[in-house]
Amino acid sequence: MSLNIAAVIPAAGLSSRMGRFKPLLPLPGGTVLSRCVRLFRESGVERVVAVTGKRAEAVAACVMEAGGIAVHNPAFEQGMYASVLTGVRALPPETDGFFMLPADIPLVRPQTVRRLLEIFARETPSVLYPRFLGERGHPPLIAAKAIPAILDHHAVHGGKGGLRAVLEGLESAALDVDVADLGTVHDLDHPEDYEFALAVADAGYPLEDECCALWAMQGTSDHIIGHCRAVARVAAALCERLNARFSERPGAVRLDPGLALGAALTHDIGKGTKRHEAAGAELLRDHGFSRAADIVADHFDLSQADDVPITEREAVFLADKLVRCDRAVPLEGRYLEKAEMYRHEEGAEEAILGRLTRARVLMARFDREMGEPAERVAAEALA
């Protein structure tokens, strides 16, 4: 039987530290608040309650346009707990659990919410927290049985300690689930936090800390991590060299070193499985990193027509072929060593040499478009 899960989004704050009204600040795809509402709606949560306070009419319009329900907290100046109470009181009696997400935490990915929903239905904890690199984040998924305690805490203790104090009383039956989602711990307290959100919203690739979380979750070995870090440095260097000659390369596209880094840092995350490139790509898609997944899926073998622009995909592919372990190596040596290793397996040597031919063609194109040898760029990046 499916559970009836709702979400509460307190959006009644004063935004005093930001200096601008946070809920209505623009972000890709809408506003800070509309992203929070759509996060849950797109994850299958039907009842999304946003609590308004300051600029109530404008906030309510934003909420309803995004598919949520707006309820007003006339006591919004009394603090967050008053908005928590307003939101909880608006939940229907058949609610089995609810997410709690302050409106200034807009970068959580739908894949994280879906993972929490799946585990909550299976494990039925009192509270389920997303955990990023050991730090609990938002949104916690709270069982409906906590609602009486939330209401009583206001009546008996005046809300002292806020929702955190209530949840601490439920700790014995709480669970944590590890996620590779920096958005769970990134709130918009200050202008620089908002600028960061503008830069990374919907990036489609993991940031370095998210790569670290993925490695930890997968039990990735230090050897593979060292190799991925080296490949990332080379891929970033290749992108920088190509971008430096952007105006001299007809039909070229400007490359995103961040995308190349995120994909390179995770390109071997599926190592140890059959067709590790496909396994790694699937893992990345499961966590919401679709752009990086497309690159990882192609890093084993690749060919590129001359009339198609070089992208981050080709940069990561070539970087991987110019690194053995964590050191720069000539392209020929990388492939010929493999050919020798597998020469007794039928068809293996021929397949490896075919991949070498395709890699040679691609590297020659990099050499031309950068105006210097890719092998030298790799050696300098890892010197």
TrEMBL record:
| Taxonomy of the source species | Bacteria, Pseudomonadati, Thermodesulfobacteriota, Desulfovibrionia, Desulfovibrionales
UniProt-listed Gene3D superfamilies: Hypothetical protein af1432, Spore Coat Polysaccharide Biosynthesis Protein SpsA, Chain A
> Listed GO molecular functions?
nucleotidyltransferase activity
For this entry, the protein name equals Nucleotidyltransferase with HDIG domain
User: Boundaries of each HD domain copy?
Assistant: 224-325
* Extent of the signal sequence: none
Instruction: Report the PROSITE patterns cross-referenced here.
Output: HD
Q: Transmembrane residues, as ranges?
A: none
